[in-house]
Specification:
The complex is a heterodimer of chains A (194) and B (205). Chain A is of the alpha/beta class and 194 residues long. Chain A has eight helices and six strands. Classes of the chains: A alpha/beta (194), B alpha/beta (205).
Chain lengths: 194, 205
């Protein structure tokens, strides 16, 4: 687990303090890192916390955004794209990590790199108790299943962590996940406008 | 759960069917779902362009989609069983939405969990995988071998192979096969070996 503050990609803003960073920017920064990582396929069960990232992917003709019925499909899909020569990213809410457990055996036993971007729920200030059990288990679940876990501590650290996770996945031949904390995303409020 | 009547159900000869289809594969990539479909593909002739599952049930169709999207010029055929397809049944909606023209799926449907003791499967009762696929948006989804008493000779394997390898995808064929006890024909079970040779054959590194 690590918070990465520097990467070589000049497209990614560096050394920005969480205080002066618009929290929505991390999604754009992760999006902007995709071409440098050779990622053209992004699979997802959408989440509000991933909204900006997904919106940018959807609008970019160079990126194929693949909507899934369940997150485990994304793991198998990412293994397939890699076998076909390309790294893919799978973006999901933390509850989706509970859905991918058995499918993670595939990249594990075959040593296939795949990249997970996880928007966390069930952490501080969570207002929906149903999000808590799996949200709480996510880091342990992923670690137990051989997934390298990266937990950036600020919005500005998300894209660098994503780039490092991709490098780690490629080098080690394993799945890697970046967990974007609820503190970075902001808790869902459940007002009438939600 | 075991139903002795299952053993007598008419259906296509799975080994002859798969061998007849794969004989016409050319340079297509083949993704085989776990259990007997993998043994069928291996029995038809091992190839670096075959990727066999030994686990991760429910993932074959989506892995096939991933290969098809990354390699749009390559034909990809997923060969899997009825229960494996149903475990990943949502994949049919995902595949329909992506509409990969180079992807075909062959679902070997013996209406039973053949690998675990022949317990009755859901397709034995009311579930029609081709109809689900059409409902998901895969228009070219159909069933062969469903007629009572129809044997392997009752299906034109050449025509079926042509459809699976040449028709604009996505294509899904459910083949109603006999519940038979074939001998094991086991591919390597080392996942790293399987992925490395498959990726090298597909992507060249």
């Amino acid at each position: 687990m690590s918070d990465v503050s520097t990467v070589d990609d000049p497209d990614i803003p560096q050394h920005r303090d969480a205080e002066d960073s618009n929290v929505a920017d991390w999604g754009e920064q992760v999006f902007r890192s995709l071409p440098g990582l050779g990622i053209r396929h992004v699979a997802t069960v959408p989440d509000a916390g991933l909204g900006r990232f997904l919106e940018l992917c959807d609008a970019d003709p160079a990126i194929r955004l693949i909507t899934l019925t369940t997150e485990e499909e994304g793991i198998a899909l990412a293994c397939g794209t890699w076998l076909g020569g390309e790294l893919a990213a799978v973006a999901m809410q933390s509850s989706g990590v509970g859905n991918v457990v058995n499918m993670l055996g595939l990249p594990n036993v075959c040593r296939i790199p795949c990249l997970l971007l996880v928007s966390m729920r069930g952490e501080a200030e969570e207002r929906n108790p149903w999000q808590v059990p799996v949200g709480r288990a996510v880091p342990d679940l992923l670690a137990a299943l051989g997934v390298e876990v990266f937990r950036p501590e600020s919005a500005s650290g998300v894209a660098p962590a994503f780039v490092e996770a991709a490098a780690q996945a490629r080098q080690a031949g394993c799945p890697a996940a970046v967990l974007v904390s609820q503190r970075i995303i902001g808790a869902k409020s459940f007002t009438s406008e939600d | 759960m075991r139903d002795a009547g299952l053993d007598r159900r008419a259906g296509l000869d799975r080994r002859a069917l798969v061998a007849g289809i794969l004989d016409r594969r050319g340079d297509a990539a083949v993704v085989a779902g776990l259990g007997s479909p993998a043994w069928d593909c291996h029995a038809a002739g091992d190839s670096p362009l075959n990727f066999y599952f030994w686990g991760a049930m429910g993932g074959a169709a989506m892995l096939g989609l991933g290969v098809a999207l990354a390699q749009p010029a390559r034909r990809v055929l997923v060969v899997t069983g009825d229960a494996e397809m149903l475990m990943g049944v949502g994949s049919l909606a995902t595949i329909a939405a992506q509409a990969p023209s180079n992807l075909a799926l062959l679902v070997l449907d013996n209406e039973a969990f053949g690998e675990t003791g022949r317990q009755a499967g859901l397709t034995r009762r009311s579930t029609d995988i081709a109809a689900i696929a059409r409902g998901a948006g895969i228009d070219a989804a159909f069933t062969v071998g469903g007629e009572v008493g129809e044997g392997a000779g009752g299906t034109d394997v050449d025509a079926l192979a042509g459809t699976l390898f040449e028709k604009e995808g996505p294509v899904l064929c459910v083949a109603k096969i006999a519940l038979s006890a074939e001998s094991g024909s086991y591919p390597p079970r080392d996942g790293v070996l399987l992925q490395a040779r498959f990726r090298a054959a597909l992507a060249g590194d």
